[in-house]
Amino acid sequence: MIKSNPIRRFGLGIPFIGNRFASWWRISLAVALMSVITGCQTAPKPQPSWQQTLKEQLPVMGHRNWIVIADAAYPAQTSPGVETIYTGGRQIDVVNAVLDALGHTRHVQPIIYLDSELEYVPEALAPGVEKYRSDLKLLLKDRQATTLPHEQIISKLDEAGRTFHVLILKTDLTIPYTSVFLRLDCGYWGAESEQQLRDAISKSRQ
After folding, report:
1. pLDDT of the chain along its 206 residues, tens only?
2. b/e map 70-90, b = 16+ CB within 10 Å
3. Domain definitions of the chain by residue range
4. Measured between alpha carbons, how far is 169 from 14 in angstroms, rounded to an integer?
5. What is the SS3 assignment for 51-96?
6. For residue 5, what is the enclosing H or E element?
7. How far apart are CA 68 and CA 158, in angstroms?
8. Which of 81, 135, 168, 194 is most exposed, with the fewest beta carbons within 10 Å of its own?
9. Do the Cβ atoms of 45 and 145 come closer than 8 Å?
10. Cα–Cα distance between 136 and 147 in angstroms, integer?
11. Distances in Å between the alpha carbon of 123 and those of 57, 115, 119, 184?
12. Under CATH, to which class is 50-194 assigned?
């Protein structure tokens, strides 16, 4: 006759009755529950989308910050203020979304820079560039854009990244010189207002 062990608790509120099967079942259940609990505690948090990142960062960004919508080959930069995010989106769509988001802010407005080389990239060497130029021109039809050589714009970014935050949104576009650079300026105090202020200060010191 097999004697049962005295009834005791194993931490799960289930009596241990001395039966080998019951013991195995209880231990397996304990291990399974611990796995579930541990898994819940260590599961990685989902990464925010680039749209969510942009939404969170815009309120704290101001004049002298930059937002760049870059083509696929745009390099990762080492300046401490530069943050690069892969969007996985179409270039034109990301440009449109960023400009739309900026249009709903009151504190900043974008000053747009484009690579001057873009105008001369031939369709034969970069298929799709003509459509991109056309789409970009349509998108920016009511906005003023300044064109500069690519290296000059990169130099401006490098300088800004040493002190100010630069957000780079990389896309899947594989056409060169298609990046759109947005230097943020104050949305409620423009260059003309600043000049009038400086003139008033200068006159008061005469």
Report:
1. 555 554 444 444 545 445 555 666 666 676 667 665 655 555 556 667 999 999 999 999 999 999 999 999 998 888 788 999 999 999 999 999 999 999 999 999 999 999 999 999 999 999 999 999 999 999 999 999 999 999 999 999 989 999 999 999 999 999 999 999 999 999 999 888 889 999 999 999 88
2. bbeebeebeeebbeeeebebe
3. 1-43, 50-194
4. 55
5. HHHHHHHHHHCCCCCEEEEECCCCCCCCCCCEEEEECCCCHHHHHH
6. none
7. 12
8. 194
9. no
10. 13
11. 37, 16, 11, 32
12. alpha beta
Q: What number of residues does the chain have?
A: 206
Whole-number pLDDT of residue 25: 62
Question: For residue 195, what are its two tokens?
Answer: 């000049």
CB 58 within 8 A of CB 101: yes
Counting Cα atoms < 13 Å in the Cβ hemisphere of 204 gives 6
Comparing CA positions, the residue from 153, 142, 143 lying closest to residue 178 is 153
